[in-house]
Specification:
Radius of gyration: 21 Å
Order of helices and strands: HHHHHHHHHHH
CATH topology of the largest domain: Tetracycline Repressor, domain 2
Helix content: over 70%
Largest sheet: none
Strand content: under 5%
Number of helices: 11
CATH class of the largest domain: Mainly Alpha
CATH superfamily of the largest domain: Tetracycline Repressor, domain 2
Number of domains: 2
Number of strands: 0
Shape: globular
Distance between the termini: 67 Å
Structural class: mainly alpha
Length: 222
């Protein structure tokens, strides 16, 4: 292959990647504003200013695109969590408190991300349809489950956290409750505020306080 052909191939690949990124950005905005149910491939193509035929060269269905967006959003969340994790100070329990407070702020500032994640969980409540995307998703999630588990282990060693709890199961429970409660509150916020006569977002931080209370080693013994 001549240098001219190499240059043209490189340029073609760069243009292809640029268009793919644009499709993902447009799809993300569409899913965030309209939801997975109402978003269509036609709508995404129009937003991206490309033909449906061009869009289908990159993604065959809106479900495939939704999966890509969920992976993208979780990666951003996990990057945020990793940054927090590296900056935590104090004993194990204090680190968990700092971590949960940062997560509460993240939820407050990114409600549409949490809402989309909730809709994604409902939309894909059966089998995941894409093996390659499923593997990427599972590997990414499992790679970040260690953080809460490690903090609990650390707290048990320094005596700030009860020694009688299972760090792995407790860490997974905290992670899942954190996400599921946030999803429910943000998706049904207006209804919950009226039904319960209370600002429903208060429940998120209150749940964090309940976590801390249940973790604390009040005997002072390791």
């Amino acid at each position: 292959m001549t240098s001219t052909n190499i240059y043209r191939e490189k340029e073609r690949q760069e243009q292809k990647e640029k268009r793919k990124r644009n499709i993902l950005d447009v799809a993300r905005d569409a899913f965030m504003s309209e939801g997975i149910m109402k978003t269509t491939m036609d709508g995404i193509a129009k937003r991206a200013k490309i033909t449906r035929r061009t869009l289908y060269r990159y993604y065959k269905t809106k479900e495939e695109l939704a999966f890509e967006i969920e992976i993208m959003l979780f990666k951003e969340l996990y990057d945020f969590q990793n940054e927090i994790f590296e900056q935590l100070v104090g004993n194990g329990l204090e680190k968990i408190e700092l971590f949960l407070n940062e997560m509460a702020d993240y939820v407050e500032k990114n409600p549409n991300v949490i809402k989309f994640s909730g809709e994604f969980d409902y939309y894909f409540k059966g089998e995941y349809p894409y093996l390659e995307l499923t593997e990427r998703f599972k590997n990414m999630i499992s790679s970040n489950d260690y953080m809460m588990e490690d903090l609990i282990f650390e707290g048990q060693k320094d005596g700030s956290i009860r020694p009688d709890i299972d760090p792995v199961l407790t860490g997974l429970t905290i992670n899942n409750v954190l996400l599921s409660l946030s999803q429910r509150v943000l998706i049904r916020e207006k209804h919950l505020d009226v039904e319960q006569d209370r600002a429903s977002r208060e429940m998120i931080k209150h749940q964090f306080q309940l976590f801390l209370f249940s973790l604390e080693n009040r005997t002072g013994k390791v």
